[in-house]
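Exercise 7.
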Amino acid sequence: MRVFSGGRRSGKTTEAVRLAAAGMSQGVYLVTHSHAAARASVDLAHSEGLDIHFPLTYGELARGGLGPGVRAVIIDNAEFFIQQFTDGRPLHAVAINDDPREFDD
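Solution. The predicted structure, written as tokens, is:
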């Protein structure tokens, strides 16, 4: 799993889109907070000359929207995703296992 962080407009979403494009043939999907963000991610990919699957939203993922073609996901703005399960309370800290294993076919 890859973990990257940075402030607003630091390139996190661009990196997520690039990873989604690189993993497209292996069933890697981007997950965004809304349909508008999903559309913006597709537009960003196209502006970079890349193709990605149309991203899933947090709500779709939470409702079990993973079809059989979704083999792995990249969560954009993961802190907002986690906040969906804390009734919007701010996150004080996050501990993450930074496992170096890469998605493997």
